[in-house]
Write a structure and sequence with these properties.
mainly alpha; two-stranded antiparallel sheet; 9 helices; 4 strands; about 5% strand; globular
Amino acid sequence: MSEPLRFGDIQQRACIAATHGLGKGLAAAARAAIAVADTVMAEASAQPHVAEAVAGAACGKGCGWCCHQVVGITAAEEDLLAEAFAAMPDDARRRLKARQTAAEVRLSQLSADKWQTARVPCPLLEDGACILHAARPLPCRAVLSADADACRRWREGEEEARIPLVAIQRGVYSHAQAGLAQALGMAGIPAQPVSLVEALSLMAD
């Protein structure tokens, strides 16, 4: 019988891995924390109930309903995205900058407590897919839905609609981000997350 998954252990493992990764830079620390979460999910998927939940997920390329919410990222995840942004073709960067500016203008018209309910599309979303998917931050990796139609109804503002998240996926990647933030704080690097839109603003400029 396999041992129960302990989210506190995941945070500790991610913190240790990110601390080692910091020797090679912020982006390396983010990759290390992501690798811990990926490994834990792969191990957990050996359990039938986890494998069933993951296999039954409705997420797929072109389904971007959930990509309309505020995402908080650490400085390490910001650096990982910046690397990917720098490698993009010029025309793709220009399109991203235009979407980022539109999102920033929209959010600037709202109080912070209204950001989440405004359903502003992530600037990385293009034709229903994340253009920097391989470098996406941990909160995005934490989202795995069991019902795409429920996500659509949530995106369209249906009052009772909720994104039906696969709980274990959310827990693993959320605690990995907590471990990453802990490693940054221990290294004297600000650990407070910033919004993805704000981070993209700095990259685009």
